[in-house]
Amino acid sequence: MANFVQPARDCPLCPRLADFRNANRAKYPNWHNAPVTSFGALTAPLLIVGLGPGLRGANATGRPFTGDWAGDLLYGTLLALGLASGIYDERPDDGLELVNCRITNAVRCVPPANRPTPAEITACKPFLSAELAAMPNLIAVLALGGIAHNAVLSAKGLIKSRYKFAHGATHKLPDGLVMVDTYHSSRLNTNTGRLTEPMFREVMGLAKAAAGVSS
C-alpha cells in the first residue's frame, strides 16, 4: 500500500480557499472548517469522487456529503444498494458505515459558490493521486460530475480528451481501473430534472457491478 497523506488542517496550498476557510471559522466557530478527509476504508474496491465539500454540508460536519441534499441522495442510494449500513442522519456520529466503497473529493476544502478554480483543483491533485495509489483493492471509480471525472484522469496522468464525460459512461483506463460517470447529486441537478433518483441509482449500480461487488 502506497504512503497516503491527507492535507493538513491549515493547508496553505490555495490562498483563496484558506482565506474562505478562515472567514468561515470566524463566522461559524463550531463548524469543521478544514480540509475534509475521506470516508470509508482504503481497502474498498470502489472509490466515489465528488467535487468538493459543501459549505453547510461537509465543511460544517467534517464528513464528505454529510448535511446537504447531495448527501441525502448519495447516502440514500448507497443504503438502498447495500453499499452502506446503518442510518444516515446528516451528522458524522450517526453510526453510518460504508460497505465496499470509499468517498472523497477532488478538492478537499470548501470553495466559494462551489466553484474551485483550475489551480485549486491542480493543487489538490497530489492528494487524490496518493489516495488512488494507496487503495490496494481498487477496481472502479464513480466520478460525480465533470470536475471529478477530469480530476481522476489528471491524477492518473491521462489525456482528458480521450475520455469524454457523459452521464452513464464507462471508461476502461490503461491500468485496468474502470471509471463510471454520473451527473453530480447536487440539488441543482435534481431540481432541474437533469438527474433523477432512478438515474442516479442506475449509475451507482453500474459502478457497484464494475467494482465486482455482489448484491
Question: SSE layout and pairings?
Answer:
Blueprint: H1 15-27, E1 39-40, E2 46-50, H2 58-61, H3 69-80, E3 84-85, E4 97-98, E5 101-105, H4 118-133, E6 140-144, H5 146-155, E7 170-172, E8 178-182, H6 187-191, H7 197-210
Parallel strand pairs: 2-5, 2-6, 6-8
Antiparallel strand pairs: 1-5, 3-4, 7-8
Main attributes of the structure:
single chain; 215 residues; alpha/beta; Uracil-DNA Glycosylase, subunit E; six-stranded mixed β-sheet; two-stranded antiparallel sheet; 34% helix; globular
Give a structural overview.
- Helices cover 34% and strands 13% of the residues.
- The chain is an alpha/beta fold and 215 residues long.
- It has a single domain, classed as Uracil-DNA glycosylase-like domain (Uracil-DNA Glycosylase, subunit E), CATH 3.40.470.
- The strands form 2 sheets. A 6-stranded mixed β-sheet has the order 1-5-2-6-8-7, sandwiched between helices. A two-stranded antiparallel ribbon has the order 3-4.
- Strand 7 (170-172) and strand 8 form a beta hairpin.
- Helix 3 (69-80) crosses helix 7.
- The radius of gyration is 16 Å and the shape is globular.
- The mean pLDDT is 95.
